[in-house]
Amino acid sequence: TRRVIARVLGTAGGLVAVYLLLEVLQAQGQWLSVICAICGGIAVAYITANYIYAVMGVTVLVLTLLFMDGDPLGTTMWQRLGETVVAGVIAVVALSIWPDREDDQPAPAS
Questions:
Q1: Which of 21, 49, 61, 106 has the smallest number of Cβ neighbours within 10 A?
Q2: 101 exposed, middle or buried (CB, 10 Å; 0-12, 13-18, 19+)?
Q3: pLDDT in single tens digits along all 110 residues of the chain
Q4: Contact residues for 8 (Cβ-Cβ < 8 A; gap 6+)
Q5: What would the pLDDT profile of 29-40 be if each residue is shown by its tens digit?
Q6: Contacts of range 20-24, beta carbons closer than 8 Å, 24 or more positions apart
Q7: Quick check: 94 and 1 in contact, CB under 8 A?
Q8: How far apart are CA 88 and CA 5, in angstroms?
Q9: What pTM value is reported for the model?
Q10: Nearest to 19 by CA among 86, 66, 84
Q11: Cα angle vertex 109, ends 103, 110, to 5°?
Q12: 45 and 55 in contact (C-beta within 8 Å)?
C-alpha cells in the first residue's frame, strides 16, 4: 500500500514539476534534452532510496518526451492525474482483497 501511495504522490509531483518546466518556464530546444537527462538520472539514482523521487523523475522524463512528440501537456495533465489516482485506488482495493503472498509466509528462523 505504501508503494501505491508513493507512486500516486510521485506522479502528482512529477506532473507539477513538468508543468512548471514546460508550460510556465517555457523550456524548449536543447533544454528538453537536459531535462530528460537529469530526470533519467534521478529515476535511476532514487529507485531504491526514495521511490517518490524515482517516480517523479520517470514522470517528468516520459512527459517531456511526449511533449517533444507534440502531446498537449496542459490539456492532458488533469486527466493523467485523475487516471493515476483511480489506478491507485483500484490497486489498494485489490491488495486488500488479495493480500501479498509474502505476508502469509512464516518469518525465517534466526
A1: 106
A2: exposed
A3: 788 999 999 999 999 999 899 888 888 889 999 999 999 999 999 999 999 999 999 999 999 999 998 888 777 888 989 999 999 999 989 888 886 666 556 666 66
A4: 84, 85, 88
A5: 899 999 999 999
A6: 21/60, 21/64, 22/63, 22/64, 22/67, 22/73, 23/73, 23/74
A7: no
A8: 7
A9: 0.81
A10: 66
A11: 125
A12: no
72: left (phi over 0), alpha (psi -120 to 50) or beta: beta
3-state secondary structure (DSSP) of residue 71: coil
CA angle 18, 25, 7 (to 5 degrees): 15
Cα–Cα distance measured from residue 42 to residue 69, given in angstroms and rounded to the nearest whole number: 22
Quick one: which of 81, 74, 69 has its CA closest to 32? 69
Q: Which three cell numbers stand for residue 54?
A: 524515482
> Do 84 and 48 form a contact (C-beta atoms < 8 A)?
no
